[in-house]
Amino acid sequence: MFQLDPRLQKDCIVIGDFPLCRLLLMNDATYPWFILVPRRENSREIHRLSDADQQQLWRESAQLAQWMEQAFAFEKLNVAALGNVVSQLHLHHVGRSPSDPCWPGPVWGQRPPVAYTAAVSEKIVRQARSELAGVLKKSS
Amino acid sequence: MFQLDPRLQKDCIVIGDFPLCRLLLMNDATYPWFILVPRRENSREIHRLSDADQQQLWRESAQLAQWMEQAFAFEKLNVAALGNVVSQLHLHHVGRSPSDPCWPGPVWGQRPPVAYTAAVSEKIVRQARSELAGVLKKSS
């Protein structure tokens, strides 16, 4: 049975479920930063998912990316599956700007996260659930 | 017309062409590190490629990843489209190991690359062309 990795659970806020992936908001107000986690047990590498799951993962990634572009201002989207620390397969989507503190370097492992206030994270979660309602599962 | 970004040209060795992407070997012997560059003009973001190109990109990414797993020893594959420095869309595939000098951090912008000797890079290029012959274009 799929269970979200405890580190992702601790670092992120759950928004809801796409058909394949759980959608998380990284609790770091420095960047618009969302994570897709395929709800598959013991998945570590994209290319070991089934072909159908790979296609669905990339469909959900594109849907998330398109929404992020409308909802936030950024210059470049960083899309990455690393997993050196948390091995459970998860796909980062980070909106990057020349004014952000790590530009143009990568964001991972560079700076401690700046937690959202509850009001701001709740607003982002509400907005995501509303604007992605057509693609997120109804139960979420 | 597609032209490879000069920085990628300088930092990498061209192996050949998949149906969509140019396949590059990053000239850094620290890691097995390959890059896919969709041969599309002015492409910057994955989700702005056509649906067909996106599907083909991920197919080629999975084929490359499967080959890398057979050809090299590593613990975790890092797959990432960043593009903060080189905006031309390019997809990194980096084989990571707990013994590598940046583990578990990301590889980008951390250490100067360690260039391959010609003998070693030529061996890798030959091996890639031979073992990926079924999926690389014949002209390459």
Unreliably modeled segments of chain A: none
Beta-strand residue percentage of chain A: 15-25%
CATH level-four homologous superfamily name of chain A: HIT-like
Strand order of the largest sheet of chain A: 1-2-3-5-4
Features of the shown structure:
homodimer, 140 residues, alpha+beta, HIT family, subunit A, globular
What report would you give on this structure?
The structure is a homodimer of 140-residue chains. Chain A is built from 3 helices and 5 strands; from the N terminus they run αβββαββα. By secondary structure, chain A is an alpha+beta fold. Chain A has a single domain, classed as HIT-like (HIT family, subunit A). At the A-B interface, helix 2 and strand 4 of A face helix 2 and strand 4 of B. Strand 4 of chain A pairs antiparallel with strand 4 of chain B, so a sheet runs across the interface.
In short:
The structure is a homodimer of 140-residue chains. Chain A is of the alpha+beta class.
List the helices and strands and how they pair.
The structure is a homodimer of 140-residue chains.
Chain A: H1 6-11, E1 12-17, E2 21-26, E3 33-38, H2 51-71, E4 76-81, E5 91-96, H3 118-131
Antiparallel strand pairs in A: 1-2, 2-3, 3-5, 4-5
